[in-house]
Amino acid sequence: MTRKWIYPVLLTGLFALLIGLSLPAGCVYGSTTDWLSQHTALAETIRTAMLEQKTLLPTYLSLGGGSNGFQFSYYGYLRPDILLGCLLPAVSMYKIVIAYALGGYLLSVLLFYLLLRRHNLSGFDSFMGSVLFLTASCFFHTHRQLMFVNYMPFLLLALLAVKKSPRRMPALLPLWMLLICLHSFYYAPACFVVIGWYWAWLSGKYFFRPWFVSCALGGFMAFALLLPTGLSILEHRRASTSGDAGLATFFEDFQSLLYSSYGLGVTLIVLYLVILGVAIRKYRAISLTFLLLFLWGGISYLLNATLYARAKILMPFLPLLLLHCALILSDLKNGRERWQLWPFPLLFAVIFRYLHKSYWTLVLTDFIFLLAVVLLAMAVSEERTEASEGVTPMPGSRLRYLLSRFAFLCLLIMPCLFFLRSASKEEFVTQADMDAALDKPALALYTDSLYRYDSLVHPLVNGNRDASRARSKSSMYSSVYSNEYSQVYYDYLKTPVQINNRLAILTANNPFLLNFMGVRYLETSPSHVPAGYRVLWEDGKTAVSENTSVLPTAYLTTDTMTDTLFNRIKGWEQAEALTRTTVIPESEADASTISGKVSTENADGWHTEIRYYQPLWSSKEIPATVQLTTTGDIKNRSYDLKVSRDSTVTLTFKQPIKEQLLLLKFDVVNHTGKAVTITINGVKNKLSAPSAAYPNGNETFQYQFLASAEKELTKLKIKLPKGHYTLRNIRFGLLDASVFQEKSWNSVESLDTEKNEILACRASTDEDTWFVTSIPMQKGMTLFVDGEKTDLVTVNTAFAGARLTAGEHEIRLRFDPPGMKAGIWISMLAGIVWLSLLIFQHFHANKERH
Predict the structure, then answer these.
(1) Is it the case that residue 405 has pLDDT exceeding 90?
(2) Phi/psi class of residue 638: alpha, beta or left (left: φ > 0; alpha: ψ in -120 to 50)?
(3) Residue 701 CB-density burial (10 A; 0-12 exposed, 13-18 middle, 19+ buried)
């Protein structure tokens, strides 16, 4: 082995060691949080859509009732590992994702080492800087939020290209910028800023023109992805729910820089070097810029497109930060600059803000260890180095040389420890859980595109998984979603909110939801099969059941209600109205609107069938761990609960409920800083902790329990979490189970779809009627009736529908993502321009040589 390969091999070995130590036995390299439920699940679903639709840009995914595929671009449309998965369809997508993430991580470390070498740092100095890069806690996201760091190899390739050609546009730079966009369009602007800053660092004012041209070419070549994605984001844009102060945000404890895996996650040695750089003339300007970047949250706010001021967007600055620190560290090691103690009072002021953190002891150890190493380095350092790279030190200075090397290596101990600490906080997916998530029921289903297939078995894990044309799902978990669909799902149909993040639209045992969204097939545990569903298959852990009475995803009806009246009624009645009628715009109403359900008791023509009541209990089993204080009268009773540990309360009805839908709701007031999760008869509701990154605001818990003649409801089994909280405004209601058969509707006949069609059917009607779907309305939809383009109308406040005249009709609903065709053309033209520039540069270079 030649000398130049020693340090890359050592870095590879250290990488393998740290990954091995961080991964528990029997686990795969992925988190149970977002990695399992979003990144691998969506990668599999996107690959399935690519193969089904025979395109690299699927227009439509069968998630969330049916969604624009570009709503999921954040998670990797056109990501190379997904494209590789299309070439290897027999290989589980999660294995490809893991291999690609780890390969990109190692490649990033080695490329950073090469970047340091290109700056004329010695092998040892480059090794030191590369270990700091390797151990940055932001790489925690190679097993959680992949897009936070998966662009890093291509960012480093871009920096290396700029280093090689700082006075003109490097030939391959637009390609690297394109790949950054394809991996993580969200981080692309920050990456482009980093490339521009580095370019200005190298060549001053001459950087702007070649940088701008490179950004334009790289960005425009990615327009096939960026344009339809941007239009989808604008269509579904929502107000920010973050509680930060925007431009007025400050990271006083430098959490944007130190320790956190949602910042850069480096240790005190980096902050020490940045502060020390302020006192060194040639490093002063860059050090001050970094201090501003990591202290003032306004820059993060702008880079986050004004959504919030969160430090995760600063991760692309890691290579420049550590390059800056490595240069300072090299000067200290080689005696060109002196170690100083004056930064330590400032460092202590920073770490003092971590006093009440659970890892305070480790932070204090980092401070003490750094101080000790600096004192040791000061004791052994000399004005001029006595042993530069490759030169044997003089005999009298051998001990001093070895102590100096030892001191520098000691600087790497705490970064490694914090890397392992960060990994230890991760809840890795066990291989058994991964196998269970991938396990599909051994059941051949009657596959009809007019019905959906959902899962109540780990709904978060399975929300984005196993979706295809044959298995359309009502669930989805994406940062871009239809606000109107979410409103119907949670606000109108009263579906329980099950996790901290309300962005996740997750299936629940809500009879209103299952009927309305056409969930004919349902995965559950064998003990929690909902009433109305018949078990088709089970294996002891999972049961697949069928309900043939649910509404299809497309049907004909004349039972209608105006949206004006719908918005006037409140609470459970809105779920009842969506079950009994179809909501149409006021402007489309006719004499049959409100479907003849005109009541002399209500001038508006709406009469609810919900009966509010107070149940009687034959027994109440309340464990001693639940301290209960009751206030108020019987109609407005509140219960203050102090629960010393997770407990179960059982309430048995005096009169069992059958052939009725029991409705229950209550408000939750949380008196602690922890989340409150209450599960009743297997139905879960959660109020997130006040400190949650994305608080769900779910302060009213909603439950629905359907009882049939065969499956009576005899008790409520209430699982209470440890904590202190108050339940108030408790209301019970009853609704006859026949409500799900009350809507009058006629079926349609499913037809085979053609390219870009999401629904095709034949309908026959004797009178003018409404064609109703439970496919969310979105831009890009076009409806053809008997080959003629027909106006779409939003029905049930969020879904695609249309008026139909009497007769037999062939109906085809087509979807073309807005901007996709234009984006493809722009990408092709940009690619041609880039290739032309490559050819021109090649011939120009040959001409200069001759």
Answers:
(1) no
(2) beta
(3) buried
H helix runs in 6-92, sequence order: 6-22, 34, 40-53, 80-87
pLDDT at 595: 44
Triad 455, 459, 465: Cα angle to 5°: 70
Torsion of CA 507, 512, 515, 519, to 10 degrees: 0
Q: How far apart are CA 154 and CA 111, in angstroms?
A: 9
What pLDDT does residue 596 have?
38
The residue with tokens 């940088």 is 211
The pLDDT confidence band at residue 172, using thresholds 50, 70 and 90, is very high
With beta carbons less than 8 A apart as the criterion, state whether 273 and 147 touch.
Answer: no
Q: How far apart are CA 850 and CA 843, in angstroms?
A: 11
d(CA 192, CA 214): 9
Q: Where are the beta strands (DSSP E) in 457-605?
A: 476-477, 504-505, 519-524, 534-538, 543-546, 554-557, 560-562, 582-584
Q: How far does the chain reach from its first CA to its final CA, in angstroms?
A: 38
Span 724-747, average pLDDT: 94
Give the torsion sign (CA, 103, 166, 837, 830): positive
User: If you ran DSSP here, which 8-state letter would residue 697 be given?
Assistant: -
Does the pLDDT value for residue 2 go beyond 80? no
- Biggest alpha carbon distance in the chain? 108
Confidence (pLDDT) at 718: 96
- Report DSSP letters for 677-693, one per residue: EEEETTEEEEE--TT-S
Phi, psi of 170 (to 5 degrees): -65, 140
Taking CA atoms, 467 is separated from 46, 169, 398, 463, 731, in Å, by 9, 44, 66, 9, 37
CA 16 distance to own-chain centroid = 28
510-537 residue pLDDT tens: 999 999 999 999 999 998 999 999 999 9
CA–CA separation, 317 and 193 (whole Å): 9
Q: Which of 466, 460, 465 is nearest to 501 (CA)?
A: 460
Structure tokens at 385: 């180095």
Pairing of strands 700-707, 638-643: unpaired
Q: Is the pLDDT of residue 54 over 70?
A: yes
What is the pLDDT averaged over residues 202-231? 92
Lowest mean pLDDT among 394-408, 569-583, 693-707: 394-408
Rounded to whole angstroms, the Cα distance separating 746 from 733 reads 30
* One-character DSSP codes across 283-316: HHHHHHHHHHHHHBTHHHHHHTTTS---GGGGGG
Residue type at 46 in one-letter notation: I
Residue 349: exposure state from Cβ atoms within 10 A (0-12, 13-18, ≥19): exposed
Q: Across the strands, what pairs with 676?
A: 687
C-beta separation of 721 from 668 below 8 A: no
Rounded to an integer, what distance in angstroms lies between the CA atom of residue 27 and that of residue 432?
8
For the chain, percent of residues with pLDDT exceeding 70:
93
Q: What does the pLDDT average to over 453-472? A: 84
**CA of residue 343 relative to chain centroid, distance:** 39
Burial of 2 (0-12, 13-18, 19+ CB in 10 A): exposed
The answer to whether residues 735 and 661 touch, using CB atoms and an 8 Å cutoff, is: yes
551, two tokens: 């509404």
Q: Cβ of 579: how many Cβ atoms within 10 Å? A: 20
Report helix, strand or coil for 586: helix
Quick one: 841 exposed, middle or buried, by C-beta within 10 A (0-12, 13-18, 19+)?
Answer: middle
| Residue bearing tokens 């008026």 | 803
605: left (phi over 0), alpha (psi -120 to 50) or beta: left
User: pLDDT value at position 389?
Assistant: 44
Cα–Cα–Cα angle for 651, 655, 661, nearest 5°?
A: 80
For all residues of the chain together, what is the average pLDDT? 89
Q: Distance (Å, rounded) from C-alpha 118 to C-alpha 122?
A: 10
